[in-house]
Write the structure tokens for this entry.
Amino acid sequence: MTLRLPEGKRLAVNIGVDFDAQCAFNGVMGTLSPSILSRGDFDVEVGTPRLLALFAKYDINTTWCVPGHTLVTFPDAVRRVLDGGHEIAAHGAYHEAVTGLSEAEERRLMDLQLTQHDKIVGRRPRGYRSPSWDFSQATLGILEEYGFDWDSSLMGNDFFPYRPRPVVTHRERANEFGPPSRVLELPVSWFMDDFPAIDHVPGALQGLMSTDGVFARWRDTFDYAYANAPGGMVTLTVHGLVSGRAHAIMMLERFIRHVAEHDGIWFTGLSDIHDRWRD
Ligand SMILES: [Zn+2]
């Protein structure tokens, strides 16, 4: 099964920007110190303008996954993203780890973030990316109930969308699978994410890889998909507070140039990719 790509296109490429700003570290840090918050300022003041300028230079449509907290704290920056022609998707209320929430709390935070999207973006998002890419047992059902078209948090494939299904796990007998979801999964990968490779969070994440090493991984992933997965997609996840840094944005531009040198590349948003899928 492949995407029905536009005439002449071989591979869809999505750059997803997780615009976490000052709630970026809620999932991993006990406190939000002034230093941690300043990294959110960098995201808004430096990283986001650099990313927007880079995407404009190469005429690339991207998807920005934005927590409600970023929407209401930095509405002017969100406006600049929209003015650049990029789509906005849901990315939690305050970058909460949904795995630690009760179903009632998860539902309350979904209501809250959708209200914030209505207020700041002017409409509800079609897609959801879970903060830190994990689900509770309730998340998939909540996404279905709230009418999301797609999710982009899971890792059951690499170059093709799929329909995730609930799993009841057992240890001494086989796991049980529920029916495939109507929510389409546009899968992600930690290997195609700038954050774990490059960032550093004292006591929580070492990162700090050489950009040559990260570039080689991204390039090889793209080259493999281009050769072996025609009609598929490649997703890359970046953050302004990481890829907005000088060395990292030079690597990102190198990657974009490498991709753009190939015939039949469709740089596009995740909702566009969703709309090209038929089961
Ligand atoms: Zn995030």
About this structure: The chain has ten helices and ten strands. The first helix runs from residue 34 to 57. The chain has a mean pLDDT of 96. The chain has one domain: 11-275.
